[in-house]
Amino acid sequence: xxxxxxxGVIAGAKATVSHVAVASGDRARVDYQVTEAGDQGGSAGQLxxxxxxxxxxQLIDGLHGSDHPDRADLAEFAEDxxxxxxxxxPRTGKLRRVARALVEAVPGITGLTSLAVTLEEAVRNL
Length: 126
Description:
The chain is mainly alpha-helical.
């Protein structure tokens, strides 16, 4: 039997780990993408309303494809946030509350959690 040691998720050199990544169980793995600082416009905190709206759309799609018991309500909540972003003067306080609530609502769904955390970081820096 081959013994393997789990060393977790490691970032070296000038890499930054900005989100939590978890993989457990036999043959589990973490999918990730490595980008240089400044790629794609920088960190999530520097995204504009259009990019944040796209994150919300991805989250809505993910919710619809999940088995989360409140997926319909959460998707509607996220859609309300997209409408707020599209307004002439988006209320950032409301958007922050929505983003925080979404992070708290999807902790058991790894893909959605990462997306929600990215969304929250971007909204916080609007």
